[in-house]
Amino acid sequence: MSLIQRALLSVHDKSGLLELASVLAAKNVEIIATGGTTRYLREHGFNVTPIDTLTGFPEILGGRVKTLHPKIFGGLLARRELDSDLQEAQAHGIGLIDLVVVNLYPFREVVTRPEVALADALENIDIGGVSLIRAAAKNFTHVAVLTHTSQYQSVIAELEREEGRLTLATRRQLAGTAFAYTSRYDAAINNYLLAEQNDGEHAPRHSALEGEIMVVALEKVQSLRYGENPHQRAGFYRDSLSRETGLAGARQLQGKELSFNNIADADAALNIVRMFETPSCVIIKHANPCGVGVGENLLEAYLRAKATDPLSAFGGIVGCNREVEGETAAAIAELFTEVVLAPKYSAEALKIFAQKKNVRVLELSELRLAPHASLELKKVAGGMLVQERDSGTDDEQSFKCVTQRAASAKEMQALCFGWKVVRWVKSNAIVFCNEQQTLGIGAGQMSRVDAVKLAIAKAGSLKLSLEGAVMASDAFFPFADGLEAAAAAGITAVIQPGGSLRDADVIAAANRLNVAMLFTGVRHFRH
Predict the structure, then answer these.
(1) E strand or H helix at 49, and its extent?
(2) How far is Cα 285 from Cα 160, in angstroms, rounded to an integer?
(3) What is the arithmetic mean of pLDDT over 206-223?
(4) What is the DSSP letter of 65?
(5) Is residue 382 in a domain?
(6) What is the tally of structural domains in the chain?
(7) I need a labelling partner for 79 at 20 to 30 A (CA). Which of 25, 277, 283, 513 fits?
């Protein structure tokens, strides 16, 4: 057990500090503090030793240097089990410090403000605080370190229970948390300095990909019952360096706890509905859309999405890009649904969903992607794949007609709809659609022609006519067979990236079949 006799307090966030200081004072712990913390505690009647009184040296450089002194770090790093350390400390008039309470300047909060100046960002890089934390954590066998207000209550309870002492197990756990805290802090600085670069001519680029080291910082949002399968442990973590909220910022209004698969599927739904300006709905199963619809209102959009594949829609995830009102909620509630995601819900909609207590209702007010480059990470054995997110919409003005017949205005509208959807379907991906809804989706097939045949079969099983519909393909057609099968089913126009060695053969087949074809020049594989 380590008896706490002397504590150093230096906090930006003073929440809960008075209660902690009261317990320390009651245990006759000497309190040392930096300028702002000293003033705060003295205003509330505490006896505090200012840091400059201890060091005999004032804070300098506008507060940039205040704790970086041998009388502080010697007191933190002295090894109590070594007589030589204790004798040296005594010779230099260094008193031992048993507890450090530090939280850092709010760097991340500052740099996420719009148009933050570089000078403001740099002034919020904490130096002394990080050094105090690391020194105390390194010597955790003798020193305890608190880095977050959420730790105060458990430490107070232990100090009361153990008569002013903290166990080695507690100090070790606090030290581990402290190093994670400073690691996340440094990661935020790294992320800011290597943030996206935009030269004004190209899309934003994330320069972190140019470096030799990439730092990731994650904060737990919640523990999950299990992962993709019941035998796998899992948790949901927030990217603490990201400037967009995403699903980690969603508010659950009702329903059972979210599962691993719920969250993954809800993210797929979010990716699709955020692509559309008009009211839209998507129904997701196993990370793929089984239907997408747009309409004059949300009810129309939902019914069109459901019509694509109502069998697969059972037990699906519904994503909406508009407020869910009563009529739409009633329609969704007719079918067993795992999760509903929307920016807002009317009182009537919430009342309807309340009758389906297991339905998880998520509210996410901000659906738009952050207007900057961000990264996607995929774990592989022994490493991590990292790429810039395939975000934003492609420039429709750059789409090139490569056939003798150009797409009609109606076909063009449908092609643009399909192109927005197909990029979020697992490769190989094919989407049949009109300008308002998907009609058949072929996802995750090993060959492109099989994806076409699957989409045709899906549409046929529900008697959805493909006459006059269009086809979107996430990548080029290596042969003309997929196009020929689609044309035989009634497809009149196609959108695809192009880039195959056999593009000329595919274009010739399209001309022979009187099918309009657009090349986008952009591939959207999704594995």
Answers:
(1) strand 49-50
(2) 52
(3) 74
(4) B
(5) no
(6) 3
(7) 25
In terms of domains, do 150 and 23 share one?
yes
Selection from 512, 465, 511, 509 nearest residue 491 by Cα: 465
Compute how many other C-beta atoms are within 10 angstroms of the C-beta atom of residue 283: 29
Question: Tokens 């079918």 sit at which residue?
Answer: 335
Q: How far apart are CA 291 and CA 360, in angstroms?
A: 20
Give yes or no for residue 258 having a pLDDT over 60: yes
Tokens coding 363 = 């509210």
> Looking at residues 341-355, what average pLDDT do you find?
96
SS3 434: coil
Please report the pLDDT score of residue 241 as a whole number. 64
Integer CA distances (angstroms), 160 to 31, 157, 276, in order:
17, 5, 58
Query: Tell me, what's the pLDDT at 243?
Result: 64
DSSP of 388-401: E---S---GGG-EE
How many CA within 13 A on the CB side of residue 272?
A: 34
Q: Are 338 and 262 in contact (CB under 8 A)?
A: yes
Statement to judge: residues 28 and 109 lie in one domain: yes
DSSP state of 60: B
> Residues 446-456: what's their mean pLDDT?
94
| pLDDT greater than 90 at residue 466 | yes
Q: How far apart are CA 511 and CA 527, in angstroms?
A: 32
Active-site annotation, residues: 138, 286
Alpha helices by DSSP H, listed for 27-162, are: 35-43, 51-55, 70-77, 83-91, 107-111, 118-123, 128-138, 152-161
Cα 31 to its chain centre, rounded Å, is 40
Q: Spell out a b/e string for 191-205, using b for 16 or more CB atoms within 10 Å of the CB, else e.
A: bbebbbeeeeeeebe
Report pLDDT for 470. 97
Same domain, 296 and 408: no
- Say whether both 181 and 264 belong to one domain: no
Reply yes or no: is the peptide bond before residue 297 cis, omega within 30 of 0: no
Percent of the chain predicted with pLDDT > 70: 94
Q: What's 464's DSSP letter? A: -
Six-digit token string for 132: 């105090």
Closest CA to 342 of 320, 326, 361, 358: 320
Q: Indicate whether 418 and 465 sit together in one domain.
A: yes
Beta bridge partners of 337: 316
**Three-state secondary structure of 290-359:** EEEEECCCHHHHHHHHHHHCHHHHCCEEEEECCCECHHHHHHHHCCCEEEEEECCECHHHHHHHHCCCCC
Residue position matching structure tokens 């920016």? 343
Residues 484-510 pLDDT 10s: 999 999 999 999 999 999 999 999 999
Q: Are strands 280-285 and 288-294 parallel, antiparallel or unpaired?
A: antiparallel
Q: What's the rounded Cα separation, in Å, for the pair 269 and 350?
A: 20
Non-local (6+) Cβ contacts of 413 within 8 A are 435
Residue 387 lies in a domain: no
Confidence at residue 198, expressed as pLDDT on a 0 to 100 scale: 45
